UniProtKB/TrEMBL annotation:
Entry keywords, A to Z: Transferase
Family stated for the protein in its record: Belongs to the acetyl-CoA hydrolase/transferase family.
GO molecular function, one term: acetate CoA-transferase activity
Protein name: Uncharacterized protein
Domain Acetyl-CoA hydrolase/transferase C-terminal: 268-421
Pfam family, one: AcetylCoA_hyd_C
Amino acid sequence: MYQKKEVSVEEALSHIRDGSRIITSLCAQAPFLLLKHLHEVADTGKKFKIYSNMNLQAYPYLSDEKYRDRIDIDCLFQMVGDRVGHQKGLVNYVPGHLHDGTWRWAEINRPNVFIGAVSSMDENGYCRFSLSNIHEQAFARKADLVICEVNPNLPQVNGETEIHISDIDYVVASKEPVPVLPEQSRLSPIDEKIGEHVASLVKDGDTIQLGIGKMPDAVANSLLDKKDLGVHTELMSDAIYRLTEAGVVTNGRKTLHRGKSIATFAMGSQKLYSMMNQNPSVWIMSGNYVNHPGVIAQNDNMVSINTAIEVDLTGQVCSESIGSVQYSGTGGAVDTAQEASASKGGRSIIALHATAQKGKCSTINAVQTPGAIVTLSRNNVDYIVTEFGIAPMRGRNVRQRMDNLIAIAHPDFREEIKKAAEKTLLR
């Protein structure tokens, strides 16, 4: 069956019809070979719409302006490749949460073509969406046309990851390298201090969610003395890998999926991918499940740890735009923060540097930068942390929040922030 379905890239893409609505697999699970050639469909005169997210490369279909009138691109979460297209006006941002954003988009746009990458087929005819099932399995099953590149470099990961070869219309052989992130560089003293503050809010036996970047790395380093942590997170990262290898993550006290680390996608080093390969204690599951509000809060003592671009003195958080310029997306920030706060014994934590642009501006301000997107409302955050300390938000009135946040702002900006607050917030 497999051999009968294997075709060249050119033949596989030739089956995409004019007016198709395409959805793809994401991030490290993206069909890199197929996406490098996807613009060739438009070269034949066909037009199509594509829901394309978390791209690590600026493929021609994303970045070449000659396709402006033939390729319509929607994006729920921008990474480096998507930003190139967005800056040129080629990529349209779709606001939405990770747990339901794709499904809401699909209600309107009804995708009928799925293009993805999968692992090698096993002896039972199953391939796997090993490094992302944010929406992959669900929409591969619904599509009229399913094209997958089969990549032996992808690990075999357990959970809700399987797709049978009989459900794939065309396969393309691929040996594209799986993208890896650089291993942890030396943390700055600021990162280390923030990590220490956050770690003081985490208890033995908690279940954690960590975002991506240096901030989670710093937090993970400071959690190495904890015991029996559990993992229920959208992203399986190197930070989680290090805690697992150190024996800190055991998942032994989890309320939900005890004994298993649960995530909906993964991105990190080759060591992370090797650890996940055929590991019965690591599961990738659907984003619609992992980040669902009715699921996250089932974990007692759930702690979400995310970062931000800026916060205001009432506790509103912007984590997706720089001013009015869309930088990333809402992702799972609201899903995880809101439900961690709602869980029994849970906490929602936002950790960020007190300054940005090499100390030129404060990330804590009386009000948000004009045009900035409020990702998390002031009702969704329990603690905000910088290198200067911890600002409790839960149950505090606006005056108390202001005082707490000014106390963790950089000393060079505290007086300025206080004066601005008196003009704008205390009238």
